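Molybdopterin-dependent oxidoreductase structure dump, as promised
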Amino acid sequence: MRGPSEPVIDTSPTPGDEVRTTTCYMCACRCGIKVWLQDGRIRYIQGNPAHPVNKGVLCAKGSAGIMQHYSPARLSRPLKRVGERGKGEFEEISWEEALDLATSWLAPIRERNPDELAFFTGRDQSQALTGWWAQQFGTINYAAHGGFCSVNMAAGGLYSVGGSFWEFGEPDWEHTRYLMLWGVAEDHDSNPIKLGLGTLKARGAKIVSVNPVRTGYGAIADEWIGIRPGTDGLFAFALIHELLRADRIDLDYLVRYTNAHWLVIRDPGAADDGLFARDDKGRPLCFDRARGATFDANAIDLQPAVVGEYALPDGRIAVPSFHLLAERYMDPQYAPDAVAERCGIPADTIRRIARELAENAFDHELRLPIAWTDAWGREHADMVGRPVSMHAMRGISAHSNGFHTCRALHTLQLLLGAVDTPGSFRYQPPFPKPIPPPNRPGRTRQANGVLDAAPLGFVHGPEDLVVDENGAPRRIDHAFSWSYPLAAHGMMHTVIRNAWAGDPYKIDTLMMFMANMGWNSSMNIAETIGWLTDKDETGEYRIPRIIYCDAFSSEMVAYADLVFPDPTYLERFDSISLLDRPISDADGAADAIRHPIFDPATQLDAQGRPRDIRGFQSVLVDLGARLGFPGLLNDDGTPKYRDYADYIIHHERAPGVGLLAGWRGADGSLEGKGAPNPAQLDTYIANNGFWRSEIPEHARYFKMANRGYLDWGQTMGFLGSPQPIVLQLYSETLQKFRLAAQGHGPNVPPPEHCDRVATYFDPLPIWYEPFEQAQNLDAADSDFPLSAITQRPMFMYHAWHSQNAWLRQIATRNYLYLHPDTAARYGIKDEDWVDVTSHNGTITVQARSASNVQPDTVWTWNAIGKRRGAWKLPKDAPEATKGFLLNHLISDITPKGDYANADPVTGQAAWFDLRVRIAPSTQTDDVSQPQFAPIAGAPADDPPLRYGAEFRRERDTREAS
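structure tokens r here:
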């Protein structure tokens, strides 16, 4: 008997008729993707198993790249403002007119004073070009996204261990037994972290999440420590206190790889107090216990002292830097019982975490049977490791005490011997770098108008500050001034206020790329909008000209005078460069490209017309040639590069060093350094869009002092020399600033900054109350008992994705979440409307209870709230009517108004210092507040989400015929 007829099912359907590989740009992860096309349209996006970043894993954001590419909010043509700023009234113009107009504005600036251009870039991952372009223009006024995102993390790490958390280091996923996540959200390096956490869970390693809110990674952690915002450094010091008290530290590691034994001069009031004692060749000294005398601290075969006072040959007294560290953190003020209430963590929990760290580090010592040679020529039969890892992100960075908190975490790691050892935190090439990195910020212009160095860099001492002869700031954002000396990424969050105020001078043109400063990337939104639109007594805008580039009709577009439309990431070339934000991992160096999957001219806009767009990098190359940049012209005056793709191939930052490290040399046989290769991009495309070079096995750990790695790094162009990198428990760089504040040296701060510099430039990490909290406590009429923070959702990245049709199905609006006990205390029920008030204003939003938050903290998802009329969302889109931003409550200056709302060392924006009070609202409208007038422009339709149906119809039609 025959069975029933079964339909034939294709269990492995082909997603399309063509597949191309490139790099995702739906977050900063930079995963490899396969883009399947059918009849020239995207059919499907999947992860690329061959790619080293994600190994085939792809998240919801990556899959939703289809809707990003086909977003109705895409810009299609250059725009010139015809109405008032902020109204969103433009006329379309040709590219030639747009470039002529931009050139006519910029050429006179470069001729008379290049600093009248302020060029500030957002989340672009193109700093290797944009910073170089600013240098060629000659302006010191260039900044990047990190100033309001991660510079505390970068500077705190680079001035301590020559590397950093974030996307530039990783836990040893294969070997760690114990991982602490400090303030880690789900938006950066997401897929690699998920893969790594899966590895740890499979091996039974313990994961501890330190965060005021438990979401994402914290939800799968074995333990959640709901810390009060801004107290992470205090918690770290309590852990250090316990480790020191129990003598559970790795002194051998400290002496081999850090400056723990370097002698620090103790001579209060002297010009060299707190500096390292050095011999006549400038070499730091230590005291050798075996011989009872001082010797070169970097010599081997010594028995250096790490505690005690010692007389120098000239009679002065000095102590090892570790002695100063122990004196400080053994103080009872850092004992668990002393910090528990302020941190919101029981003292017994602090003591237990310290014991667990020590147990896993020292009682489970890890040895890998890999022979290696250190930088001094000593051979080692194996690699000894401490299987304790840490990873940290914006939760510690975005506070006014974040720089020192980051340094505190690195100090904790160093005491455990857990930096780049098996099982611990590991560097990703091109890190580690010398401490501090050698590149200083540009300060003067050459005869050809080019700045003497890139505008951003690392200050080594007061002499490197970008200030005038009176010590006043020279940059429009006040970065690298006495107010924020180590502002390595610049200060995007201060530029608009200062440009409006003419502080320290007026600028002519503000040029921005992918920086939504008219909405979710600004503190103090209402005032920022006012500064962008304010006019002087003559009726002219106080910021005369604004050039803006974006791929989408964000809120900031409405405030531009000239708009350059950028492609989506599937229509452009990008260089994910080792000079910028590489995709390396701890075992290999890697970089990547994006390349056009589509010719933009084949993509239609909302009116059915071909889109006339150009990549901003190519626009910069074109503009630079029109402006006569030496680096963009041949000797005969013709443009050196056809476009950005040509620039990627042929530009050399130094002989043999270009944006891409793979397949260099005329025949493509070299890597790291080599002459330009005309076929380089084609080779990348053929290799799934990336290049990767394995670090030799014997060079993968102890990179700061591993001869194999140091030699390899120099060969690759990562290091100028193969000298070991001494990790800094004690920062002489910071002490130089403290001495300047005490009146020593030729470069001293103006009197009004002396106390500030002397306080916050401590050579050992310190903790202090975040400024907003401290100043509100000082104000008699203030009562802001709650911290308010945002979390980055795993399913969206910045503002780009809360306009994405597929990702909007996950969330189209946000709520203010508060602990049930907190809700009960204030009489708030689920979905009640509440007034949330800070010293800067009030918003009215809907609240919900959630037990995954520390009781003295309220939180919401970041960047979902939109302004009506922006992003081509429907006119009544929930993002605009119910969604909201905490940004309205965050001031760009401190409550006292004395400085920017920022870290005093680096200028990092202190988004997470926000303090609020809440109360039930009396409003009757079912709409969040504040609301602004809609931006002009036709909203998009809101059709059913049936993407793909046309492909099925076309297939069925073909099969039927």
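Residues 603 and 780 are 60 Å apart (CA to CA).
lmk if u need the other ones
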